Structures are given as C-alpha cells and as structure tokens.
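All the exercises in this workshop are built on plain-text protein records. A record pairs a protein's sequence with a compact description of its fold. Read left to right, the backbone structure tokens trace the chain's path through space. Once this layout is familiar, the rest of the handout is easier to follow. Here is such a record, shown just as it appears in the course material:
>
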Amino acid sequence: MQDAPETPAGPGAPWSRTIATGCFLVPIGFCSGGMIAAFASKLVAYVTRATPCDGVPACNWLEFTVAGGVIGMLTLPALVMWALRTPKRPNT
C-alpha cells in the first residue's frame, strides 16, 4: 500500500476576521472577568472575616471587579485570537 503524501496545514482565519472577533470579545471579557473577580472578593471577605457592608457583596468589590475586568478584557480576546490564527490541522 502506498503512503499518501501529507497535505500541508491550512492557514488560520484571515486577520480581518480575527481582529473583528477580538474587538467583539473585549467587553465580554471585561464583564466576565469582573464577575469572577467580584465573586473572588466575596470569598476573600468571607475568609478574612471582614465586616459586611449593606447591599454589596464585599466592601472592596469595586477594586476586585476593575482588576478582574481588565485581566478578562486582555486575556479572552487574546486567547480566542490565538486559537483562530493557529493553522488548521491537515486532513489525513
């Protein structure tokens, strides 16, 4: 039986689609990172036995939310853009 020649890997997504997807995911990344960080602030307040504030998850939730939002705003689009730009696997 003859070995089939390997087909080269296909290129990733075009740059225009990759950049557009990344721009779309910036606010989504900010919101998701901020929500996770607000939950983390609640956990930190519970572990440190901080005095509760009325009507908010933790007294310092805003600092956690902004920091987590910035991290999410940078990482989610970067990971998705990286995944879109990786070459497609060849068909064997």
Observations:
- Residues 29-85 form one domain.
- Helices lie at 15-47, 61-85.
- The CA atoms of residues 13 and 34 lie 29 Å apart.
